[in-house]
Amino acid sequence: MTSPPTSSEDVRLRLEIAYEGTDFAGWAAQAGQRTVAGVLDDALTTVFRTPVKLWAAGRTDTGVHATGQVAHVDVPAAALPNAYPRSPRPGDSEFLPLLRRLSRFLPIDIRVVEIVRAPAGFDARFSALRRHYEYRLSTAPYGVEPHRARYVTAWPRDLDVDAMHAAAQDLIGLHDFAAFCRHRPGGTTIRDLQRLDWARRGHLITAHVTADAFCWQMVRSLVGALLAVGEHRRTEQWCRELLDAPARSSDFAAAPAQGLTLAGVDYPPDDELASRVLITRDLRTR
Fold this sequence. Notes:
21% of the residues lie in helices and 26% in strands.
């Protein structure tokens, strides 16, 4: 789904958002479910006193967190004064009063950390160059410390991080990742995976994953396959062989959602935003 054309009387705002995803049924608004977009849409609609809808760079799944989600919203220019009856103080950014006011309407597991006017041609999803995710696991014998338990996956077995890292390098590049994606009608599974590496610090193991875009459950599936390598249940070459599969493989399970965080989204310079949208909308085929 794409965002609708912006009316000449609308103002497009760019929002940077953080959330702790444990108690959300993902990003996308769903009837009868508590979702990140649903809660934010309600809060923004209340503040602006007119219905508005957010469009995100990445529609995270149930239980997935974000420290650098990016979204845009189109607001009627006439509704902007409803959000902050008082003018910003000298030296404050234009939307600082809105940021403060919005925080009072949001639960503690969502924060809007920045609001700015979006440059011409900006679309949070289709203008994006790449998304960055991090996946965290702990192999500590006692599990995960309580203050980290909601965003680090406890792993009960030791892992060969060097083998995982070596296997991951065979996946870098432009490939069809059908073996690692849940099917979406009309979607493509061809992605440009730009980074997939692993680092260990004591018991904490972190994967850094970057691609131009991700298909449904791709990051968790990549991690799940590499965990099989790290436990020596599969060879390092096995992951490369999976790239030949025409559909989601049943030979491994996706890693649990709680360890995954959307860490950031990159965009081109302002004068390249519109052309980036055209590139992104060009559907790749196998």
